[in-house]
Amino acid sequence: MHAVRFHEHGDIDVLKYEEAPEPKIQANEVLVKVKACALNHLDLWLRQGVGDWQLPLPHIVGSDISGEAAEVGSQVKRVKAGERVLLSPGISCGQCEMCFKGLDSACRSYTVFGVFVDGGYAEYVKSPEVNVIPIPGDLSFDEAAAVPLVFLTAWHMLFTRAQLKPGEDVLVIGGGSGVGSAAIQIAKSVGARVIATAGADWKLEKAKAIGAHEVINHSQQSISGEVRRFTGKRGVDVIVEHVGAAIWEECFNSLATYGRLVTCGVTSGGEVKLNVQGLFGRQRTILGSFMGGKAELLEALKFIARGNLKAVIDSAFPLREAAAAQKKMESREFFGKILLHP
Ligand SMILES: [Zn+2]
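Above: the input record for the complex with zinc ion. Below: its predicted structure, written as tokens.
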């Protein structure tokens, strides 16, 4: 089969479009013919190398996958060959305390397609049956690939971690990112007021089009100043954040008393200053969030199937142009998900 792999870590030119062996499935696995695979920032980190993670090389990244079940193992009962499917990105043991609590991403053996197992930058990928979800309704393969990782991440951040309640004010940093565009819609769908930031005016227009009530250009305006203006100096109840160092203090200063800042990433660096007085004096909470559970994805998919939440797609590239797709992601000139088509 054709796949995009890297044999060593490095810049974009380590990505090679080449022949790779087709995956062999086990009895409890499904071979999926990939129709679409969405990019995530994770793909870029993995290509560059993450800390002391020892990825199997050569390696295929890609965590958000939709396609057709091409072949099913002898013990597979639920999934039928030919079925249109999407893959739940998180792979966990399914039998530990955390898995049974629905906190899959806290499972000790947790991984994600494209991390310690091959992902979707390929014509075929293999998956445990338990990760295979029928595509709901008439969702296209592109829409189905654009949903899983970002919607389950945003769902876990807003509900499981930050305990968002109807009517609260939510600030979404980077409203044009995959997680940001999902968080705007999810927060709005439960009656929150959403303030979104982005670094370009064309992205702010799009953020409004998908549901943001107010917007802030964070490259030209003060986030905390605008938040004070929008909230009558009160601050916001919840902040959804994945940028880190560059905007940390502005975010922290935007939190209301009893506000919760939930973060799932550090695209601008992970070392920040913390004003502890502002933390306890205002009874604020800082929360870490990482991926989410399969159950949360299934919940989000109900909203997707009914059209209450929508996949936000920026563009699609042929698989052989994966390097150009990653370049676009690095340039930040996108809004929503960038897809690959094998
Ligand atoms: Zn487990």
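Notes for the reader.
Residues 92-93, 96, 98-99, 107, 109 surround zinc ion (CB under 6 Å).
The first helix runs from residue 41 to 48.
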